[in-house]
Amino acid sequence: MSSKQKLIFFILVAGIYNILVYSLYHFESNFENTNINNLADAYWYSIVTLTTVGYGDFYPITFWGRLIGILFVLGSLGVLGYIVTELSLKISEYLKKREMGYFGTDMNNHCIIIGWNAFSKQVADQIIKAEEDLAIVVNKESDLKTIKQLYSDKNCFVLLTDLNDYKALDKIKLKESRRVYISFENDTDTLVYTISLKKRFENINCVVAIENIELKSSFNYLGVQFIIPKNEIVSKFIASYIFEPNVALLTEDLISTSNDKSNLDICETKLSSKHTYINTTYLETFIHLKEKYGITLVALSRKGQLIKNPENHLTLQENDVIIYIANGENKQFIN
């Protein structure tokens, strides 16, 4: 039923109701020994009857009054049914909107995946395994249900919407996210979507995985910092397994997320202004981490530039990102 139809129906019902109440007052007030003496009594009786409360303090005694009373009794069934139905629909609608992510999330500094496929699922597995907050945007209800079954709502928020509804992306707090991974099966679709997204959210940090390496310059032009050529990465791994299998095994262990004490993980931490290692040299930090926590410092990033094997005397500064190797247990000590 449309809003206009609902309004007409409401006006019609309200009109009939008031006519019946006035008629009840008319028939009862003119009769001797009646207890409905004015319109207020008639309205009170009708409301008590329609809501099935039934105090019994007012009641009709005339034939026509009782006939109207019967109509109110029968109407109470409709009112009660209407209220229960509307309440059930509102609750169902609320739960549906909540499941679809309609009310948004309060996550900050979280990861976002836009688009869902087998490859993005593998990425999501690693993010969830690292116990990081993740928001996923999908445009199919089947994908929504799959993700809900795979991951807990505790650190995974899912939004079901048209991917081109950029206003809806405010619900996942896109501007407050750490990284946005755009995942489409086709590189062209990924490029087109990235162009549209960066046009509206210029300062977001995007990550894309592509198969056609020739498109890398196009993504660079858009300001996408992290472009992963799928085929190139796979070929390097295969070659490494062929002639340096132990190196390949270690590399696989390092790039996968681990919370286990026996497995290693390569991690990064951004140094705040009050961090312990601010104004210490790279060598001093290296020795301290190794001796106290068994953590191996390997590199740092400054102003977006990765510095491999830094000079020993290099002084760590605020907002530097230190990169280190740790296991699932000791990596917590560096934060």
Distance between the termini: 57 Å
Strand order of the largest sheet: 3-2-1-4-5-6
Uncertain regions spanning at least 5 consecutive residues: none
**Count of structural domains:** 3
Order of helices and strands: HHHEHEHEEHEHEHHEHEEE
CATH architecture of the largest domain: 3-Layer(aba) Sandwich
Strand content: 15-25%
Rg (CA only) = 33 Å
Largest sheet: 6 strands, parallel
> CATH H level of the largest domain: which superfamily?
NAD(P)-binding Rossmann-like Domain
- The coarse overall form would be elongated
DSSP, total strands: 10
Mean pLDDT equals: 86
- Text of the CATH class of the largest domain: Alpha Beta
The helix fraction, in percent, is: 40-55%
Please tally the helical runs, counting DSSP H or I stretches of 4 or more residues. Answer: 10
Structural class of the helices, strands and pairings? alpha/beta
| The CATH topology of the largest domain | Rossmann fold
